[in-house]
Amino acid sequence: MTQRRSPRRAATVAALALAAAVVPLPDVPPAGTAYAAVAPASGELRAGDSGPGVEAVQERLADLGYWIDGADGEFGTETALAVQALQKAAGIDRDGIVGPDTRKALDEGVRPSAETSQGRAVEIDLDRQLLMTVEDGEVQKVFSTSTGSGEPYTSRGERHIATTPKGSYQVFREVDAWDPGPLGALYRPKYFNGGIAVHGYGSVPPNPASHGCARVSLKAMDWLWKSGYLDVYDTVLVR
């Protein structure tokens, strides 16, 4: 005799089977309650906006490791740079605007990965224009950066190409001030390859635009000084 299942039992079995088939992505922080409540919104968020939607996006960015100077509900420069860092990691338009593609990247928990596996390091990803602090192979913080443009320039009568060379280096000098130079002053630079440094700058475009240094925002550079990842003799991997 064939045993018939009650409709309620059949529904329960089906629900359990579906739950078992869904495997969560590893190491991706789930969207918090505040972000999940705002995520379905269809409107864009951009510089100058404010409110709970902005705050929820800021919190989600911070949860994923994108450096931001606080979740205050104000869409300012640092928020736009954090959004650009996420967009770079996701391979989508780097416009700093939270639209459908960016919301999808937030939902999916997009984060870059590291190449170093031991100790503390700063990694600079030239293709994606990202600077990352890394500890024992795990990315801790992600910043939008702008490196060598690849364009020719002249300094002290000599012609050069604006390049950030790949390789593994160490910080060998630091200046805790605006450091004047032939191409302009650098904010609190950490030099790792001749005159090439990680430094703060008033403008951090989403594309390569420097003479060879890795630019980050002024506030981001202040944080990097405090972080301990760019002390003298610390590793800087340009890849």
Number of helices: 6
Mean pLDDT figure: 87
- Biggest pleated sheet: 5 strands, mixed
Weakly predicted, low-confidence segments:
1-26
Structural class: alpha+beta
What value does the Rg take, in angstroms? Answer: 22 Å
Beta strand %: 15-25%
How helix-rich are the residues, as a percent range?
Answer: 25-40%
Work out the oligomeric state of the chains in this entry: single chain
Domain L,D-TPase catalytic: 120-239
Pathway: Cell wall biogenesis; peptidoglycan biosynthesis
Active site: 199 (proton donor/acceptor), 213 (nucleophile)
InterPro entries: LD-transpeptidase (IPR050979), LD_TPept_cat_dom (IPR005490), Peptidoglycan-bd-like (IPR002477), PGBD-like_sf (IPR036365), PGBDSf (IPR036366), Transpep_catalytic_dom (IPR038063)
What descriptive keywords fit this protein?
five-stranded mixed β-sheet; disordered N terminus; PGBDSf; L,D-transpeptidase family protein; alpha+beta; cell shape; 12 strands; 239 residues; 28% helix
Q: What topology does this entry show?
A:
Layout: H1 7-21, H2 33-38, H3 52-63, H4 77-90, H5 100-108, E1 120-125, E2 130-135, E3 138-144, E4 152-155, E5 158-161, E6 167-170, E7 173-174, E8 178-179, E9 186-193, E10 196-200, E11 214-216, H6 218-227, E12 235-238
Parallel strand pairs: 1-12, 10-11
Antiparallel strand pairs: 1-2, 2-3, 4-5, 6-12, 7-9, 8-9, 9-10
